[in-house]
Amino acid sequence: MPALPDIETLLNNQKGAPPLDNWHPELSGDIDIIIKSDGRWLHEGVEIKRHKLVKLFASILRREADQEYYLVTPVEKWRISVEDLPLQIIDFEVEGTTLERRILVKTNVDTWFELDAIHSLEVSTDPITQEPKPAVTLNQNLQGRVARACFYNLLELAELRGDDLILRAAGQVFELGRAQ
Fold it and tell me: Any idea where the DUF1285 domain is (predicted)?
């Protein structure tokens, strides 16, 4: 089996993101695109199955101060709907030991983010099911929902601090919830 790339290689191999911070067109309107809570993108009720097209759309997606989601180009800005969070965290890579650990998380559109002070992991609790709802802060005021299997694998790296489970990465401590 080939060796996995190291964390620096994963971070550096990403293509540059469009300069969304420099693009401020007027609102063009609403477009019938919905990002479902399971990460699927629908256009006019039909799932967009071309992964490259979803990746393209995700690269021009941002959440603005009004808490709405927009696809933005230099000359257009289209509001879309998002059921939960726009991206999914589906995998991760770990490098280093507990105190010097680095964790990179991978989104469903093949982008990597290092868990750190900027790209933090936060866990809330669903008020109805009492299930954990972990999310990672990404770029462009976006967040990614951590998939259940990925979260349970991250829990294997957790340690106890009193009654709480914590995860250490990049010099940060992320609270994962109460130990059961």
Answer: 18-84, 86-176
